[in-house]
Amino acid sequence: MAVNFSSIPAFRGFRAEADVFDCEVIGELPSGLRGTFYRVGPDWLYPPTYANDIPFNGDGHAQMFRIADGHVDFRSRYVKTQRYKAHHEARRGLFGTYRNRYTDDPSVRDLSGGTANTHIVYHHGKLLSLKEDSPPVVLDPHTLETLDDYYTFNGELTSKTFTAHPKFDAQTGEMLAFGYEARGEDTRDVAVYSFDANGRKTWEAWVRTPYVSMLHDFAITATHIAFLAIPYVVDVERMKAGEVHWAWDSTKPTWFGVMRRGGDGSDIRWYKGPERCATHVMNAWSEGERIFVDMDMANKGQFPFFPYLHGEHFDPKLTAGRITRLSVDLNKHQDHYDMEVLYPDVTGVLPRQDDRYHGIPYKVGFMPRFGWTAQGPETSYTRFDHDTRKTTTYIPGKGIGLAEPCFVPRRKDAPEGDGWVVGVANLPGERNISELQVMDAEHLDEGPIARVRLPFKAPGQVHGWWVPDWELPV
Ligand code: V55
Ligand code: FE
Hints:
Elements: E1 19-20, E2 24-27, E3 35-42, E4 60-68, E5 71-78, H1 82-90, E6 119-123, E7 126-130, E8 137-139, E9 146-148, E10 167-168, E11 175-180, E12 189-195, E13 201-208, E14 219-220, E15 224-229, E16 232-233, H2 236-240, E17 247-248, E18 254-260, E19 269-273, E20 277-287, E21 290-298, H3 316-319, E22 322-329, E23 338-341, E24 352-353, E25 364-373, E26 376-385, E27 390-394, E28 401-402, E29 406-409, E30 419-426, E31 434-440, E32 448-453, E33 463-468
Antiparallel strand pairs: 1-5, 2-32, 3-4, 3-33, 4-5, 6-7, 7-8, 8-9, 10-11, 11-12, 12-13, 14-15, 15-18, 16-17, 18-19, 20-21, 21-22, 22-23, 24-25, 25-26, 26-27, 28-30, 29-30, 30-31, 31-32
This protein binds 4-hydroxy-3-methoxybenzaldehyde and fe (iii) ion.
């Protein structure tokens, strides 16, 4: 049967791989801007086989903008996951609904179902394309060709899964990471690791969460690690009945878990909080025995495509995220975590920061704000200065949809927040194309200083990552 997306047109993908040599540039790219902006998102090679499937289940499509001397080359390649290769060979969809192996065709039972569609990062010379239900997929950072469809760090990865949000300790060069549902679906086990700059495992600890929860992201500080369990829960019976992996259980509290780095995990303590949804960490740090974690936080499950178990419906008011500072004092006998909404008037998701300051005290963050107009989605970028609690916002034209931003330092040793913000914009209307916009990070409100045009609308992005020239020469 020929490919036909008409049953679920929303999932029609880019379905091509592109090379654009020397992209058109409007404005002038700063000469100091040298490096590669990688991004990845879902792009369906074949339409979903289940009507209840969700955007998060599309095949990973990696993209890169290589920037040097005022010129930009663009390239995109599907991540050649085991799943992609099976689909390609069979010329049809074989995997079932989102993270539900019971709905897969029996012929793919022994293959990894990972889509590698969520985040793309660079460490120990490897470009890693990530999905939280499976091990990393290694890509060639120069060509985006897939080098390893199931990377286990030379057998050192003992978890069945690997987070899409590993963290990079700029002080030590380590990559910290974890896998949840680490012993298989519906297991409370979480494996936590650190890998040195050569990709060798230097620490491993196992802990258990209070309930099985979507642990999408985590936080690191110089001394501690923190998780937030939110009420996206698993029920194997529901999965056997064909439902997606997660549903929102509003009867569940959140649990904020804190453990020491380098320990055996037995010191982990779980602090209770109210029903909340928080999926991404802006940054975290420790001051002695007090730990602070800044996240985008909302009252209810923020993904409209995951079912609510108790009759609620997606409500934009209750699902708007606000930067919220979670903290506990490990010396105190507190059962609950503390929280403070830092910017009550600013709503959005997908916060970022100057990653050179990850895990240490910081003041600068960024976050997209999402809105909707008659012309389509409208996104803006806000810069936060936590010292003054002042914000600066870039508002693009009507109907322009901006992807998650990424901060680019001006130099290796530039002060915090001094550099550029890059992000891909989808332009509305007849043009229907994408461009990479480059803003001065300290003058966001002045808008782009350069726009890098693509002759088409790019495949989607969940997350992106900047790799500077001094880490990977372009
Ligand atoms: C997220 C994204 C995912 C996923 C689970 O942003 C959580 C959160 C793109 O896939 O599978
Ligand atoms: Fe994420």
